[in-house]
Amino acid sequence: YHWDLESAQDQSGRALPSFTALAPKTAVRLNFSAGSQPGQQLVSTKICNNLGGSYQLDGDKISIGNMISTQMACADNRVMQLEQAVGAQLPRAQSVRIAQDANPQSMVLTFSDGSRWNLKAVPTNATKYGNAGETIFLEVGPQTKPCSAGVMRTQCLQVREVRYDGAGRKSTTGEWGNFYGNIEGYQHEPGIRNVLRVKRYT
Hints:
Order of helices and strands: EEEEEEHEEEHEEEEEE
Largest sheet: 9 strands, antiparallel
Number of helices: 2
Structural class: mainly beta
């Protein structure tokens, strides 16, 4: 699951709106991945930059190491401030509790200053579709074209699949075709051609 921050409170139960002020457009989403070796367990989030650090569990106790971030400049200063606040807060985590009988599941992270975050579970695509998905490369043309989606006329992205060999050289290119729908996380800009690495789920 992804874990989306719904609310934050200080030790007295008063709201800490600074962590949720930019939601839902810019929300705090935590991802926990468990590696096979000690030190490979990672918690990560992406607000503007990619932010991540290792974590350890001992019963309901959690310790998170210092967060490491990429260094891309954020266009909105409020987003940068949120990212810095999240990066500073996560290493203060002391305990975690998951309510599995709730629908959706919920998580409470408690920090050394007595504050807490309330997060809800959102299924990952692998959970939602029941498989790990297939990584493919899609070239998206610079212009959309009129297309028919059932009885509705609309504009479709123009896409073709691109394959690369082991050395990273383009080996085959498919035929252009209409893409009926949206690609999650991608915003098309007219006149710009992109090659996207996407996960495709059936």
